[in-house]
């Protein structure tokens, strides 16, 4: 597999090795030793899958406490996937990384603990799955608006996004109490 660094050192793009033949293809979506060597060495404790239609935007979400590192990928369709560093004291605080993930390119994004995460579906439909390093704790989950001007994510143009009520009402990052923000640990 190929590990591609991004502008935020802890955020990684992974390109698994794909074995194609007359039947289709095969790939390993996670393998403990190899991903640990790439720096993704926390144990995963939950796997999730979400199906969405074009223009659906889920996010931006984070849990604190119980921060979740997420290894995310798309099996069918395409999304623009985003990680935003909101770790208090981080040298890259407020910066974001955005990557197209698709059933075609089979790329994965490693979204570390302490990052906001969100994605926009840019195909007719998308099947999105991810592994998490902590369990879902809804009482500790926070949402930040997808179009927070201070974060300034350059989302692809697909028209007005389809949002959950929670995400539509989400505050800006600057309006969250500082105590909500995860700590930066070197
Ligand atoms: C995330 C999650 C949701 N649920 C339930 C709660 C709710 O009834 C339903 C839909 O939940 P949500 O609206 O929060 O789903 P969604 O907006 O897809 O939430 C996800 O968004 C992306 C961007 C992430 O990064 C994830 O960590 C998660 O926050 O599923 C679980 O049971 N377990 C889970 O781990």
TrEMBL record:
One of its GO terms (biological process) is polysaccharide biosynthetic process. The lineage of its organism: Bacteria, Pseudomonadati, Pseudomonadota, Gammaproteobacteria, Chromatiales. It comes from Thiohalocapsa marina. It catalyses: dTDP-4-dehydro-6-deoxy-alpha-D-glucose = dTDP-4-dehydro-beta-L-rhamnose. Catalyzes the epimerization of the C3' and C5'positions of dTDP-6-deoxy-D-xylo-4-hexulose, forming dTDP-6-deoxy-L-lyxo-4-hexulose. The record marks 136 as: Participates in a stacking interaction with the thymidine ring of dTDP-4-oxo-6-deoxyglucose. Pathway: Carbohydrate biosynthesis; dTDP-L-rhamnose biosynthesis. One of its GO terms (cellular component) is cytosol. Belongs to the dTDP-4-dehydrorhamnose 3,5-epimerase family. The active site is at residues 61, 130. Its EC number is 5.1.3.13. One of its GO terms (molecular function) is dTDP-4-dehydrorhamnose 3,5-epimerase activity. Signal peptide: none annotated. Homodimer. Keywords: Isomerase. This is dTDP-4-dehydrorhamnose 3,5-epimerase. It holds the Pfam family dTDP_sugar_isom.
């Amino acid at each position: 597999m190929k590990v591609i660094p991004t502008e935020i050192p802890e955020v990684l793009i992974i390109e698994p090795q794909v074995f194609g033949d007359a039947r289709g293809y095969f790939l390993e979506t996670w393998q403990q030793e190899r991903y640990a060597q790439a720096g993704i060495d926390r144990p995963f404790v939950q796997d999730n899958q979400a199906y969405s239609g074009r223009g659906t935007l889920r996010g931006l979400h984070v849990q604190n406490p119980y921060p979740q590192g997420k290894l995310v990928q798309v099996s069918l369709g395409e999304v623009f996937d985003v990680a935003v560093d909101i770790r208090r004291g981080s040298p890259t605080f407020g910066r974001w990384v955005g990557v197209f993930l698709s059933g075609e390119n089979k790329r994965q994004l490693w979204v570390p603990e302490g990052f906001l995460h969100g994605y926009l579906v840019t195909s007719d439909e998308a099947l999105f799955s991810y592994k998490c390093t902590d369990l879902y704790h809804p009482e500790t989950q926070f949402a930040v608006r997808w179009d927070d001007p201070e974060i300034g994510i350059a989302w692809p143009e697909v028209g007005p996004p389809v949002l959950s009520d929670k995400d539509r009402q989400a505050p800006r990052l600057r309006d969250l109490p500082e105590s909500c923000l995860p700590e930066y640990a070197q």
